[in-house]
UniProtKB/TrEMBL annotation:
<dbReference type="GO" id="GO:0005829">
    <property type="term" value="C:cytosol"/>
</dbReference>
<protein>
    <recommendedName>
        <fullName>Vacuolar protein sorting-associated protein 51 homolog</fullName>
    </recommendedName>
</protein>
<dbReference type="GO" id="GO:0042147">
    <property type="term" value="P:retrograde transport, endosome to Golgi"/>
</dbReference>
<comment type="subunit">
    <text>Component of the Golgi-associated retrograde protein (GARP) complex.</text>
</comment>
<keyword id="KW-0445">Lipid transport</keyword>
<comment type="similarity">
    <text>Belongs to the VPS51 family.</text>
</comment>
<dbReference type="InterPro" id="IPR016159">
    <property type="entry name" value="Cullin_repeat-like_dom_sf"/>
</dbReference>
<dbReference type="InterPro" id="IPR014812">
    <property type="entry name" value="Vps51"/>
</dbReference>
<dbReference type="Pfam" id="PF08700">
    <property type="entry name" value="VPS51_Exo84_N"/>
</dbReference>
<keyword id="KW-0653">Protein transport</keyword>
<dbReference type="GO" id="GO:0015031">
    <property type="term" value="P:protein transport"/>
</dbReference>
<dbReference type="GO" id="GO:0007030">
    <property type="term" value="P:Golgi organization"/>
</dbReference>
<dbReference type="GO" id="GO:0006869">
    <property type="term" value="P:lipid transport"/>
</dbReference>
<feature type="coiled-coil region">
    <location>
        <begin position="55"/>
        <end position="114"/>
    </location>
</feature>
<keyword id="KW-0175">Coiled coil</keyword>
<dbReference type="GO" id="GO:0000938">
    <property type="term" value="C:GARP complex"/>
</dbReference>
<feature type="region of interest" description="Disordered">
    <location>
        <begin position="581"/>
        <end position="614"/>
    </location>
</feature>
Amino acid sequence: MSKEATENDKRKRNNLLSQYYGITKEKDVENLFDVDGKHFNADAYVDKLVQETSLKQLIDKEQELVREIQSLDSEMQTLVYENYNKFILATDTIRQMKSDFKTMEDEMEKLDRRQQITKLSNIHELLKNLQFLFDLPTKLKSSVEEKNYSLAVKYYAKSEQVLKDFGDHPSFSGIQSDCQEIVTTLRKCLKDQFVRAEVTSRELEESVTLLSKLGESSTSLALEFTVINKGRLEKDLDDLSSYTTSGENNGEAVLAFIEKCCNTALNNAALTIATFNNIFPLASAKDNEGLIDMAVDVINRLCPVVKTKVVEIIGLEMSEGCCLSLVAALDKFHRRLLAVQRLLMSDNQWSSILITDVAQIISNRAAENLVVKWTQELQGWRDSWNNDNQPHGSVKFIEGALIEHIHRTLVALTAFVGNHVTFSQDYQFRQTFGRRHVREGVFIMSLKKLSIMLSNLCNATGKDNASPTLILVLSRVAIDFNQNLAQSLLSLIEEQFDIPAGFQGDNLTPISAVTADFKQASQTLLQRYVQSESHVLVQMIRKSMDSRDWLTTSEPRSVRPVIKRVLEEISRVDSHAAQLYEEGSRKDRSSDSSRRTHHSSRMQQKSSWSSLGPSQLDSSLLNNIQKLFSERIDLSGTVEPNKGSVVMAVIKICLKGFLECVRLKTFGKYGIQQIQVDCYYLQLFLWRFTFDENLVHSLLDEILSSAVQRCLEPVLMEPGVVELICER
């Protein structure tokens, strides 16, 4: 037999022995550059060193190798010397083994036992498998108890087919029964982990994978996954619906609520979608549709909850800090919701609708809050005002207070259109918010209500009645809003909220409609002011007329004090009106000397009437003359926004009231002379305050004529005496 054949026979025998005893030989793939390895390639190693190292490093490496070679030589010599006897013994042993193996080979060849060895090897493998089956229930139970579910599934999967094939055999029926019972427990454990509330995404993925290996349907698992997570998300919704704030301010409270909302409902929704896509990558369209429908339903219910809670937490607080916190919270929710929307690949406008709705509610509340502030200011001024307040400075003070409130409101609302806010980059939102909510909902609506509030001050009575001076001041405020303030505020809004200057589209209310309301409010206030001041003067005159017996009064020696007081009040009205309004157009005035001459001639005419006596005087003619004068005087005419018109309206009503008081009395000789003195005194001083002297003259003449008509002894004083009394 050749040497090569002998080596082959040895190799075959070694393989058979290794197979019989279960010895496996692993190939060790060594690195070509490992000096100590079996597959070391010196040429490749040198080439690599030359290419990758410098000359100095090569020299160092050479010296290192020389030292190692010398060291190895020394060690080898030592080993040879120390183990010489062992080497001799090993040589003898090897020689003996060669002889023994030669004999064994001869015997094996003689008996031809190769097939038996193979059969024994197969039997050994089978026995190992049988041993694994007998140990399987114990291993499964141990793995389940240790919660090593993946190892338990691995064991079961390895033997599942054998148990199915031979489960009916009496030797295996018990094993199969025990394994099925343990696998049932394993399934329950995996299902429990699947539905556990605090399960992590990794644990959930592991549960689904292992259940699938145990034969669970992917479709049923996907459905159960959707149902379980819907329950979890609905619990998040319930928690958010019952959320209550704890002592923080409104801005901090809304931030805390949105933080909770993002960290629970939105995060869990995103995690549910991502986990589903990860563990069911091959899910059917129907399974995906079920998940999407569930997520959409949850978000559809989440947005109203968020809107309700945010509005509830904010309340009526519209400070700048509160609005900044609200916008920051809404922006965070907007970004998180967009992330979920991208996972769903949905085109729903949840965030836009939510933010638009909240912005509208906040704008409406801002307008309501603004009106409340204005109402409080007006009530405070009404309760504390008196006629000593100087009108001019008061107008600036009131306008400043009213405008300050609207400025604060606008500054707070600008938070919604900040450049750093994500949702405000949407053009449609900015236009809707600026035009519909701020311009129309806050500015136009609140100014209209302000004009109504100003007008309503005229209708107050009793303790709610406002001071006449305050009413006059507010009439000036209304005029200023009509002429410039409303337009200035609108320009500010257009600048801050990106509204084209003078824009009239989108059915926006023209500013002229607002200014017209203020003009009407100013007119109403002026009318009320005139009525209030005139009423005081008429009441003073009526009380003075009622407190005297005009039939038996003594001969007049002076002007009655009430007449002087009336002139003082008219002077005050003139001063206040002059501080707020321009002079107004006047008719040409006569000089003081001509005025005295004119009055003296009229007094002479009255004296000639009195010389006729009551029986000779044509009373019907006098009545007709008085009627002509009365018809020329319009007491309910429009009061123009100028000083002359205001003062003249007060004087007209005052004198008309004086006339009515005279018509209710009967006069004696000295009673009519007192009226004569009072009228002359009024004539001397009223010219300073009126721009229509003829009208005043007519009213004074009518007063005196009415007194003459109702006098039992109509004898008037000489004009010179009257002048002397009045000048004295």
